[in-house]
Amino acid sequence: MTEFTTREREILFYLLTKTEPIQIQEIAEALETSERTIQRERERLAQTVAPFDLTLSYIRGRGLQLSGDERHKRELREALLLSHRQLPSADDRQVELAYRLLQEQGMIKLQALAHAMYIAPSTITQDLERIDEWFRHYALELRRKKGLGAEVLGEEINKRRLIVSLIFTQWDVLTFYRFLQGNIHQLPQLLQSQQTKWVEAINQAYAVLAPLTKQQDLSDRLIMRATLSLAVQTIRMDEFPMVYELKAYPIEVLHHVDTIEQRLPYPLSIAERQWISEELRSFQQGQQETGEELVIRLRVKRLIEQVSLLYGEAFVEDRALEQGLVSHIMSYTKQNIVNPSYVIKQIEREYPRLFDAVKQAAESVFNDQAFADYDLAFWVMHFGAVLSKPLPKTPYRVLVVCSAGLGSSKLLMNRLRQEFTELDQVESSSLFGISRLQLTNYDFVLSTVPLPDISQPHLLVNPILPKEEVDRIRKLLVSLPKSFQSPVRKEASGWLDLTQLEELVKAARQLTESFSIETISSETDGLEEILLEISNGLVNKHVTSSAVQLSAQLLRRHEMSGLGIPGTRLALFHGRDDSIQRGGFFIYELAQPIELLGMDQVIQPVERILVLAAPEKASDQLLHLLSSISGAIIENDEQTHQFEYGDAKQLDRILNRTFRKVIERELDVEEKVNDFS
């Protein structure tokens, strides 16, 4: 069997996901290493891939390229996955760095850390920036002082929790079980520097906890966590004392603590009893501890890498995919699944190779946890969403109307550019000057003075733009789906285009007739299942030809930015896809609220899902109408309330008013152009 170093695996894996030459600088940045390292590996890599009938060539000015038949590339992928020689990866190195920092009291020099870990000081500096978030998640501060080093500040209880989570990233339940059976070689590399201490502490902790595990039906992971928590206490209690905080605990937890203390060979302080109480409380609650997110995140990264290798797609570059999978796995429950066998067949039929790749990678990465096929089916949907490439976004264009003078206008425009970098074109006008402008050239209008009835979405704002005004603009901005904007706005010719008007009326009638409010009958709290159920319903309505493709597209939109409308119980899902056969607007009332990411990046409860759908090659008229619906949702508080709670008749009236304005403006624009011609 061919064996590879970790560095070889990383570089080859990255090159296998590319079809064009890649600059060495880009490879170095992606793999968190130096360009010099990549250059040094070039010759050896060329020799490594030669037996697979592949060539690694350097193209001056363009970079490295791995060339050869797809069959041979597939053989290399499989060999990389089967290679059992896995030296520490970048993730493993960062876990070790965090662990070493937690073993120190006070500052430790970066040079000493680099020497102990056999890496360059510059690599230590980069890794410190990447793991800083881990410490913050546990209410710890990673303090760095130039010339002195780094140290971890915070409560000992939080340090211990992070240590347990770090061990979980390196150790699965199966190898832990084998360790308890006497195979000390299963101890992870992370703990090898204190092997004797850890072997003693873990075996003693399990012996103490064994009677409790027989009394309750506990999962393997809970048993493993409790054992590690007690072992961490044994190793750290003398050198790193705990601080007691007054709290109340269930009587069952306190009873377990008494039982454990009686079986320990050393007495416990009140603070140390509290540590055990905190950890054993999960026995009663049966909940995942918060540190599990770190474990899941690192494993998801490995899952994405392996699926990329097996499938041959560069999934690793997609941050939204990683976040979506982490959120899904953290919150997912197997209860209330909607017809799982049907779900599996449906997704497997549309993504057969991808389903196999995800299943194979999951078995390798999550080998201590069993995931059923219907779990994996929804993972496939997340990967499938990446394959459904979103359309290029059209930059927003905004008009600023101000009558208070040039200074006020400039102030507002500068504030807009500071707060909204996505604004591509910001122009200003006086109140009297807007009659000379083609307002359809702008996506929305902001004004410091009241405006007459104009066609485009608009807001009255304070030129200083305080936080509440920024929030209002953000709410307007994100409610205008870029996916429905026409790529080019056509100038009015002065001639009434009856064909265009007929298309506009026809599209308005189609949207009105197809509109409906339905209730999602399933009580699941999984977004993936809800979107698939919605999409299946739209297949029955002949709106789309593929429920899986549409649901993946809608899921993708949410993963990229969050779609909950701030301050409401609504989420606005929108998408254009080649599986969509005709446009439509639909509302779905959920049987129970679901927690979703809002457009302001804050989690919010959602009880109604609004869906705007359009074919990839939709007419300008249809896109204009769909965009007008999204604007109508936040046009005023009363109308927003109707979208939140109104019935079909009430919303029919709003749609009718909205479409009528669009059609009247179309006629009015033509008349005004004709008057001035």
Write up what this structure looks like:
Strand 1 (about 55-60) and strand 2 (about 65) form a beta hairpin. The protein folds into 5 domains: about 5-80, Winged helix-like DNA-binding domain superfamily/Winged helix DNA-binding domain (Arc Repressor Mutant, subunit A), CATH 1.10.10.10; about 95-285, no CATH class; about 300-385, no CATH class; about 395-480, Response regulator (Rossmann fold), CATH 3.40.50; about 500-675, Mannitol-specific EII, Chain A. It contains 26 helices and 12 strands. The termini are far apart. It has about 675 residues and is an alpha/beta fold. Helix 14 (about 290-310) packs across helix 15 (about 320-330), helix 18 (about 375-385) crosses helix 23 (about 545-560) and helix 22 (about 525-540) crosses helix 23. A 4-stranded parallel beta sheet has the order 6-5-7-8, covered by helices on one side. Strands 9-11-12-10 form a 4-stranded mixed beta sheet, sandwiched between helices. About 35% of the residues are buried. It comes from Exiguobacterium undae.
